Amino acid sequence: MQPKYVDPNEWLAANTLDFFHYINMFFGSVSDFCTPASCPIMHAGAACEYTWVDSQKRSVKLAAPQYIDYAMAWIQSVLNDESVFPTKADVEFPKDFRATVRLIFKQLFRVMAHIYHAHYDTILHLSSEAHLNTLLAHYICFGRDFDLIDKKDTAPMADYILLLEEMGRI
């Protein structure tokens, strides 16, 4: 829930930055197990393969670690761009700020979905599943509350999200 006197874009910016850091931290915990050999395709289950869109707007198949590296580097560059995520009080957010945040949320969800589908056993071994599940629940609730994620983008995790809903966690 957004605090009463906080600018909506400031709230989106602060939470987007937090989600980036948390998801990046979770990927860091499994990154030794996400290699081009173990994850030659960026996927979120057998029926969902992600491709990277390069600078010429071509769809390129990448190994998961390379895709995630590109996605996180792109997100980091956007977060560091003062024209998109201003840090000065007198600078306004751009008109397309929400659209940019939606793109960031889409990429972050793909990273989370890959972690669940390809590396959940590692998360279990690290006894981090409760933390990851809480992060997913928070991410889904925030994304829905602020219309930052489309149902079609969350389809690879739909069954699990439904389970969290039925358990009252979302």
UniProtKB/TrEMBL annotation:
Q: Does the keyword Metal-binding apply?
A: yes
Taxonomic source organism: Batrachochytrium dendrobatidis (strain JAM81 / FGSC 10211)
**One GO CC term, this protein:** cytoplasm
Protein name according to UniProt: Mob1/phocein family protein
Q: Name one Pfam family in it.
A: Mob1_phocein
Instruction: Check the record and name the InterPro entries matching this protein.
Output: MOB_kinase_act_fam, MOB_kinase_act_sf
Give the keywords, sorted: Metal-binding, Zinc
Gene Ontology terms for molecular function: protein kinase activator activity
Binding-site list for Zn(2+): C34, C39, H114, H119
Is this entry keyworded Transcription regulation? no
Q: Name one GO biological process term.
A: cell division
Signal peptide residues on this chain, from the entry's feature table: none
The organism's lineage?
Eukaryota, Fungi, Fungi incertae sedis, Chytridiomycota, Chytridiomycota incertae sedis
Q: Which domain of life is it from?
A: Eukaryota
